[in-house]
Structure to design on (1181 residues):
């Protein structure tokens, strides 16, 4: 087992290196750069000497290989440099925005699990009945709806509803306060985005729960239990659900990593000052250091989620370790 | 989305059943329609969308790109069944031509992404060893890499245009397909008859094409149908970020973005109808794909 | 410093008689506008007394700028966020900011008359002004700040150097006097001096660290900084030592960064914020008016911004003046702008000068120019003829456009359609801001749709951006035209407004005869705001009048 763990962990390194190289090259292939954006974004005139000065200040005039080595070496020491756009340390920029993103991600996961597991199970148990159809359409609806549309519509619906019922339109607060300072205000800001993201997350998990449950319920030991005369409910709760959970938990783990991509759009729609929005800004400003750091962060989350899942599977199924 | 590998694993016996006779395929199709109500509904939606896209010039009452400043933002009426948008263009015509764009974007991305993923996945599983390790890492990187950077890079370097949007959307799909196909192919690689084929001196390509690929058709088809829907949605998200198809090309995602952001309350038909079109199309594709999976995967068939 | 005359509300005649006889005929339209605004300003000011108290929450329709230093940055987000913390030397009249000719003192005691044949301006600085940290503000701080703007030290970036080429030296002769010496007399100096980004910093801080103000905020303005949340919001509270008596009326303000439009519209509707200070498109205005009725008040104004169609003269066939003329003749600006004003932030058709200014062309003068003709069928026939003559009947090209809906993409879509009416097959190449700039700067485009945004209406300085690339580096037309440069040089040094106007018409005609570039409709500002917000008046520029000192809440 230890051998497998070491091997698996070592395999993370080429992935990280590959991602680092890809983001490094891609960003520099995009025409224009952060200096032009800073000095000329409003269309006024600027001195070409000022651009040269800016390039030198930011180290952009060095050969690419040197810049890349600098970047990788920095990552290894956990020093991600300073943002080319604002001059603030990258870690400061990211840490200021991490709390709200994490909060939405966690809340969305809670929402997803709370909806997906019961509904997926019901849908599996009552396969091909109208209950199943309704749940399946509901699930596919979550996958078929563009997330920005869902977000914008949900705010509008809340506004119109409160306006019609209470006479005064209500919208979640637009000024962020951390949850420990004012939990009610914070949650009222976070709940709509969490539900929007969570719906999609729930939809995917619901479908997985259903198919996993269906599969498990065909298994021999379930048929045996039924033959023994155990009540159906008991069978479902004790035997089937537990064993179906494995692929479901796997999926939830992997989908969590994809959440960050979903956050990009959600944070724009709800004007949350999170990591996703920072990402869009960094890319648009062609801020190499910040973008690189954010990509490494995203890839890291993805890689860790996958690693945990793989190790978990290896622990469960010895055959994998020895393949 | 990532489908659970184990639920579509094939045992050796099922692999043998993969090559079926003609008549029983037809019978299976009929059985499919009867059993899978939702799937048939999905298929109908998909066929309608495909036909609309193909016959757009014949069906659409107006040109989708002609501005008409005398008829800006008109509510649905007899002359414009679904109303007009902010430029005075007929919404129904734009949605009809939008079906064509959705089909082009969806099908091309799904097929190119799927086939590339298929080749990568099967090759990776078949050759194993270092090739497998390298392919896996490449897949990891591409899967973890944020779509927005890829899309921005493609758009910034090559410009906007349907073909560039397709490139941007296809890239993340390849590793997803490769992953699933590989897992399925891995289980086949160890089957004795593959070893036998190799012992008989069959070349790599022949074994891959004639033995392995047919057996991973089921997960491949499921992935491709899922991809079509995801591609349509990805186009919508990219349009929201300004990186998708550009005016005046009729595309549902672009229409939805413009309509929702500005006219959701003053001219709601501009936002609602493209949204309905997207939801129906993706719903249809997914329902059909689900039913396909249910039928092809023996474990999920109802007893 | 002249006062708002309450008698002005009695009619146009009173105002017209005040101005110099020769210019009065031309000022007709502008004076009506000015009179109307002045009348409104006068009437409102006398009708209501400002209430003290309250916090104003407003939205800033952009992400935060890279630094807080107004001298260095050019994005409006910096002005909206930080102008309330600083004082400037002179500014547009906060009670009548749409006037293109009235300037008021902020830190000075009175507007000086230039001496020495227009080459020297001597400003007396107020006494008793303090920075927020308690230290006194003197003429030395003013001189140090202005030297940073006009003659920045090595390694210090100043975005506005080119606006002040006429300035020779800036010195503080004593604690209360600042003297500006110019290299040549020009009408453009005072308006340039009223630039809203020219914050007055503390000399002491600048001496310690020239870059201190990039990360810190400390001024002498009506508000003191209380909180800045990176990328999220900025908050200020009243400065009790502010030198304009009675002001600021507000207890404080909160500025929230919100780039997406739906967020801003919804926030105003739900009263989470009272307004935004840039502009909302007509659809948002219509929505808010429909939903909120009299709880919303809308202020509108022409905007000192516009889009410019720039053919790349270095790329065939746009080196041929006939092709360029054809491009411009195909566009029906009159009908187009009327229609587009319903969906985009554009409205008024104008030439190279801001439509409200005394130096702007009248409608009759405009209609003589290519691209402004009243008979579009005739213009388009001429366009087709020119294209045929040049041998480019089926011209196809890419329009390089910026990835922003309002109004770039809308104008682009409209232009593509207009060009199709003369057989030109144009497609839009829409890219994000960085690559858009880069495409233009590297000359890698066919035709570009640019923007031209200025802040204080300073017509002679503003039209400098039409000069050829060798003089004005950011003109992406890449053409040469010594005749144009000559007319401009004379206009820059002309101190009589009537003569300057004649030269301006020549300048405009030259650009148009050679079809170098075309201004396609000026933008239009629409600010729907909660009706309890009083005191703030709209101006032609979203950079102006943002220190919020005269804003109050009627609730």
């Amino acid at each position: 087992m230890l051998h497998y763990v070491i091997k698996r962990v070592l395999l993370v390194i080429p992935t990280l290196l590959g991602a680092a190289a890809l983001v490094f090259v891609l960003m520099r292939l995009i025409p224009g750069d952060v200096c032009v954006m800073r000095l000329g974004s409003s269309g006024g005139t600027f001195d070409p000497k000022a651009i040269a000065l800016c390039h030198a200040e930011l180290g952009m005039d060095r050969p690419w290989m040197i810049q890349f080595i600098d970047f990788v070496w920095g990552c290894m020491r956990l020093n991600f440099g300073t943002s080319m756009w604002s001059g603030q340390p990258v870690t400061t920029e990211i840490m200021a925005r991490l709390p709200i993103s994490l909060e939405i991600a966690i809340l969305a996961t809670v929402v997803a699990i709370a909806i997906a597991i019961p509904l997926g199970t019901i849908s599996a148990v009552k396969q091909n009945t109208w209950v199943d159809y309704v749940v399946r359409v509901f699930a596919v609806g979550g996958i078929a709806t563009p997330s920005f549309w869902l977000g914008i519509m949900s705010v509008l619906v809340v506004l119109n509803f409160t306006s019609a019922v209470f006479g005064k339109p209500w919208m979640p607060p637009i000024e962020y306060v951390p949850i420990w300072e004012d939990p009610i205000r914070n949650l009222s800001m976070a709940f709509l985005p969490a539900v929007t993201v969570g719906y999609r997350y729930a939809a995917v998990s619901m479908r997985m729960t259903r198919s996993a449950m269906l599969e498990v319920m065909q298994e021999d030991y379930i048929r045996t239990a039924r033959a023994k005369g155990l009540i159906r409910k008991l069978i479902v709760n004790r035997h089937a659900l537990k064993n179906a959970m494995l692929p479901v938990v796997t999926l939830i783990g992997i989908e969590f990593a994809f959440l960050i991509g979903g956050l990009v759009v959600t944070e724009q729609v709800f004007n949350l000052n999170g990591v996703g929005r920072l990402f869009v800004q960094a890319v648009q400003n062609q801020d190499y250091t910040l973008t690189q750091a954010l990509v490494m962060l995203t890839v890291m989350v993805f890689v860790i989620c996958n690693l945990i899942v793989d190790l978990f599977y290896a622990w469960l199924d010895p055959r994998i370790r020895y393949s | 989305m990532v489908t659970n590998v184990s639920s579509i694993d094939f045992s050796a016996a099922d692999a043998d059943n993969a090559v079926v006779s003609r008549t029983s395929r037809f019978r299976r199709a009929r059985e499919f329609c009867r059993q899978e109500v939702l799937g048939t509904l999905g298929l109908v939606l998909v066929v309608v969308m495909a036909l609309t896209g193909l016959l757009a010039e014949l069906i659409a009452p107006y040109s989708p790109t002609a501005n008409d400043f005398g008829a800006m933002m008109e509510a649905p009426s007899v002359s414009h069944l679904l109303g007009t948008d902010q430029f005075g263009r007929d919404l129904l015509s734009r949605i009809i031509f939008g079906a064509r764009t959705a089909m082009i974007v969806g099908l091309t991305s799904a097929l190119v992404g799927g086939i590339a993923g298929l080749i990568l996945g099967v090759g990776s599983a078949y050759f194993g060893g270092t090739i497998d390790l390298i392919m896996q890492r490449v897949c990891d990187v591409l899967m973890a890499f944020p779509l927005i950077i890829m899309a921005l890079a493609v758009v910034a370097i090559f410009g906007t245009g349907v073909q560039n949007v397709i490139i941007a959307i296809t890239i993340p799909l390849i590793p997803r397909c490769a992953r699933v196909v590989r897992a399925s192919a891995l289980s086949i690689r160890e089957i004795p008859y593959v070893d036998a084929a190799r012992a008989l001196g069959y070349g790599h390509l022949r074994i891959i094409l004639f033995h392995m690929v047919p057996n991973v058709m089921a997960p491949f088809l499921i992935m491709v149908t899922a991809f079509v829907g995801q591609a349509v949605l990805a186009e919508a998200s990219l349009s929201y970020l300004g990186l998708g198809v550009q005016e005046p090309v009729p595309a549902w995602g672009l229409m939805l973005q413009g309509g929702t952001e500005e006219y959701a309350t003053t001219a709601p038909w501009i936002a609602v109808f493209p949204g309905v079109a997207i939801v129906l199309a993706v719903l249809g594709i997914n329902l059909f794909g689900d039913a396909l999976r249910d039928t092809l995967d023996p474990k999920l068939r109802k007893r | 410093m002249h006062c708002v005359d309450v008698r002005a509300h009695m009619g146009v005649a009173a105002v017209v008689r005040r101005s110099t006889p020769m210019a009065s005929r031309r000022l007709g339209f502008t004076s009506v506008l000015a009179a109307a605004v002045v009348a409104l300003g006068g009437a409102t000011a006398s009708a209501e007394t400002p209430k003290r108290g309250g916090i104003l929450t407003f939205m800033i329709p952009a992400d935060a700028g890279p630094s807080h230093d107004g001298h260095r940055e050019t994005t409006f987000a910096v002005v909206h966020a930080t102008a309330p913390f600083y004082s400037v030397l002179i500014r547009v009249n906060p009670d009548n900011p749409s006037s293109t000719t009235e300037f008021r003192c902020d830190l000075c005691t009175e507007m000086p008359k230039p001496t020495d044949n227009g080459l020297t301006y001597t400003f007396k600085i107020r006494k008793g002004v303090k920075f927020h940290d308690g230290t006194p503000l003197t003429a030395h701080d003013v001189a140090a700040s202005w030297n940073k703007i006009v003659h920045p030290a090595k390694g210090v970036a100043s975005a506005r150097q080119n606006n002040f080429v006429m300035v020779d030296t800036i010195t503080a002769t004593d604690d209360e006097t600042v003297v500006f010496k110019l290299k040549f007399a020009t009408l453009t100096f005072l308006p340039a001096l009223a630039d809203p980004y020219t914050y007055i910093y503390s000399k002491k801080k600048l001496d310690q660290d020239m870059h201190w103000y990039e990360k810190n905020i400390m001024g002498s303005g009506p508000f003191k900084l209380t909180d800045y949340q990176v990328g999220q919001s900025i908050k200020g509270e009243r400065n009790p030592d502010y030198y304009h008596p009675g002001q600021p009326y507000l207890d404080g303000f909160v500025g929230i960064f919100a780039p997406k439009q739906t967020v801003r519209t919804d926030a105003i509707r739900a009263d989470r914020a009272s307004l935004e200070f840039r502009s909302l498109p007509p659809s948002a205005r219509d929505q808010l008016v429909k939903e909120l009725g009299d709880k919303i008040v809308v202020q509108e104004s022409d905007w000192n911004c516009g889009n410019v169609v720039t053919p790349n003269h270095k790329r065939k066939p746009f080196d041929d003046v006939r092709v360029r003329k054809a491009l411009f003749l195909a566009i029906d600006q009159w009908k187009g702008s009327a229609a587009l004003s319903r969906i985009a932030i554009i409205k008024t058709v104008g030439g190279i000068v801001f439509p409200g200014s005394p130096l702007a062309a009248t409608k009759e003068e405009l209609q003589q120019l290519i691209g402004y003709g009243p008979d579009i069928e005739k213009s388009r026939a001429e366009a087709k003829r020119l294209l045929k003559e040049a041998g480019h009947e089926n011209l196809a090209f890419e329009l390089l456009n910026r990835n922003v809906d309002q109004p770039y993409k809308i104008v682009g879509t409209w232009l593509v359609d207009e060009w199709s009416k003369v057989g030109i097959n144009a497609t839009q190449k829409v890219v994000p801001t960085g690559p858009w700039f880069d495409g233009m700067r590297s000359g890698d485009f066919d035709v570009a749709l640019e923007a031209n945004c200025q802040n204080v209406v300073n017509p002679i300085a503003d039209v400098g951006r039409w000069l050829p690339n060798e003089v004005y580096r950011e003109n992406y037309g890449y053409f040469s035209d010594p005749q144009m440069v000559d007319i401009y040089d004379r206009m820059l040094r002309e101190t009589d407004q009537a003569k300057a106007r004649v030269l301006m018409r020549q300048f405009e005609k030259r650009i148009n005869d050679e079809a170098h570039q075309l201004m396609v409709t000026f933008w239009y500002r629409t600010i729907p705001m909660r009706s309890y917000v009083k005191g703030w008046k709209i101006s032609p520029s979203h950079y102006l009048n943002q220190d919020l000192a005269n804003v109050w809440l009627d609730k």
Summary: Chain C touches chain A through 54 residues (CB under 8 Å). Residues 1-46 of chain C have pLDDT under 50 and may be disordered. Residues 28-47 of chain C form the longest helix (20 residues). Residues 296 and 530 of chain C are 5 Å apart (CA to CA).
